[in-house]
Amino acid sequence: MSTTMLTGACPECETDLTTPPMVKGETIACPECMLTLRVEDVQDSRLSLQMVEVQLRDWGQ
Fold it and tell me: pTM to 2 decimals?
């Protein structure tokens, strides 16, 4: 049984990424620079990724 893997590259650090199947709008973390990336498009087993700006909560401490 074979699962199609998708490939892409982090737009920030250019690390090559390989993931199980994903759909537009899903997010992953780059294992190298730890940025949150959103899948913008999937074509021919290739991911188009964009950085997501993450808002951190201020817990008032």
Answer: 0.79
**Dihedral over Cα of 34, 43, 23, 21: its sign:** negative
Please, what's the b/e burial string for 4-38 (b: 16 or more CB within 10 A of its CB; e: otherwise)? Answer: eebebbbeeeeeebeeeeeeeeeebebeeeebebe
pLDDT tens digits along 6-59: 999 999 999 999 999 999 999 999 999 999 999 999 999 999 999 998 777 777
Report the sign of the C-alpha dihedral through residues 53, 25, 35, 61, in that order: positive
CA distance 4 to 59: 42
* Rounded CA separation 40/42 (Å): 7
